[in-house]
Amino acid sequence: MPIGSSERQKRAILGLAIAALAHPALLIAEPAAAATKTPRASAAGKRAAASAVRVPAAATLRYRVTGRVRGIGYKADARLEWRHQDGRYQAQWSLELPLLGTRTQRSEGRLTLDGLAPERFSERSRSERSASFDAKNQRIRFSGDQPDAVLEPGAQDRLSVTLQLAALLAAAPKRYPPGARITLQTVGVRGAERWVWEVRADETLTLAARKLPCVHLLREPREEGDIGVDLWLARTLEYLPVRLRLTQDDGDVADQQLQAFDMQSTGR
User: Minimal CA–CA distance to 109: which of 120, 98, 100, 99?
Assistant: First the structure.
């Protein structure tokens, strides 16, 4: 059956929405310089390093996504599955959209004294692209024809970054007062950048039928056309991501908000 013009328009709009949501990827993701640099393990200070992170409990979180692309609104459902066991982790984020089906991001790797150490990150819709982390040679290798990138200490991918932020804040919340900045190399499937997050004043959000005190993190756009990212991590849910909002200077917006959750360690 031929696709009518209205359906073509819907597909174009939803395709733009997917592209926007995939940019930070729960998304979610410079502690700049010395005061905010990710703590590193050392032979002389393993006890200090051991408290550098506290990863959140395994959980499944379901979100409602609303947004606007070129003045037209849309809605979608998303889900984050976070698992870890025996020193390894897996995270998967799925976005379900009418007509376009499901887009998935997946991150897997090791858990270390410094937190998450990704080994592979992938994105799949109609086809799959990926980035592999070669820690031994300090390289990031991409599928397709993208050139390699240098792997920096503490690097994350666009999915693991929100969970690494959660682990840093949970271990030492007083280390990150409003105004603190967190810098992490953040890897997508086509390249790697340094992302700088600024800690803003706490906010209490009403999500999933409860009031949640949250740390608000902001990644400002770096240049014209770049995407701004607001991320809220819930203090009472082990700093898991409960809201992610993406904005562009042309007025496009995507807002992902928690609707329901299940945390395995607490049975909540």
Answer: 120
